[in-house]
Amino acid sequence: MSTTLAHTATPLPAEWRDFFALTKPRVMSLVVFTGLAGLLAAPGAIHPVLGFTAILCIAMGAGGAAALNQWWEADLDAKMKRTAGRPLPSGRLLRNDARDFGLLLSGASVFVMLVAIHWLAALVLAFSIIYYAVIYTIWLKPRTPQNIVIGGGAGAFPPLIGWIAVTGEITLMPILLFAIIFIWTPPHFWALALFVKTDYAEAGIPMMPVVAGETSTRRQILAYSVLLLAVSLLPWLIGGTGALYGVSALLLSGAFVALSVPVGLRRSQPNDRMSPEKRLFGYSVIYLFALFTALVADRMVLA
Amino acid sequence: MTPEEEKEYVRRRKQRNLVIGLVLLGFVILFYAITIVRMGD
User: Which residues of A67-93 are buried (b: 16+ CB within 10 A; e: fewer)?
Assistant: First the structure.
């Protein structure tokens, strides 16, 4: 690169932190946790170096998909207060740079997974990236109020990939782990959507509380939480885990349903403080961490 | 470009180069470790 570049009208190069922000580091921490839980709960052993590599690939894939998501939604993010400060809408980063960064990160994650770990883990990782960046972000999110249900699928891949990295095969157990996060996502997000006044409507994204109304959203939260109770118990019922997980799942999911009942049956009043919704949302995050911790602890005890 | 902007330009470019260098170094070490582990399989 010649030094004359500094004298043209080129905008300042983006800071590396802006690229890092593009990977949605906070989402990534949850991805790393659930991916690691899947890896540790799987039967068999994986060398720590390879285990670290597998988790790194899952994190890189999630980061790449997040970058592609923001590349596509830059105009949309600019319209909403919560996202207007992101690197692209605020103009700190060029749009095509975000796209290239996302493609590079995604491609590298799948390639490393392929050569270092297992072809099936690489295949599922590649599919999860395409699922989030294309099927969810580009295709379905702007078209259907079921977007959160569909988006939950993207968040559900990490434990599945972590599991496959160890075993090299897809069995019922990792599919159940996938199902748990898949079913957990709608009540988790809709509880938030009920008390955070977002500007999704103005941005043209059909969120459930806006499209189907508050009452319907509340009913669906309750329905999903009951379903979550059933699905979270399945790993125990099919004999994939011990009682440590089973009892933990029963208590944790039971509390989830108990907190969903007031949310599902009430209606918000003017100037409502929305305490039950906030309580359910706060608990839903703890729930996921606790449930997967119990799963890993159960496996450690069995081993 | 004003002298201040140029200074900022150089600073950002240096930082990016440093981060890319560290990431590449990390991958070199990781691939070395993976190779050793895989050869032991």
Answer: bbbbbbbbebbebbeebeebbbbeebb
Q: pLDDT per residue over A127-162, tens digit each?
A: 999 999 999 999 999 999 999 999 899 999 999 999
Q: Are A235 and A176 in contact (CB under 8 A)?
A: yes
> Please, what is the average pLDDT of chain A?
92
Residue A38 Cα, gap to closest chain B Cα (Å): 21
Q: Read off the pLDDT of residues B3-19 as tens digits, 9 standing for 90 and up.
A: 988 999 999 999 999 99
pLDDT at A121 exceeding the cut of 60? yes
Cβ of B15 within 8 Å of Cβ of A50? The answer is: no
- Nearest C-alpha neighbor of A127 from the set A110, A139, A142: A110
Contacts of A57 in chain B (CB under 8 A): none
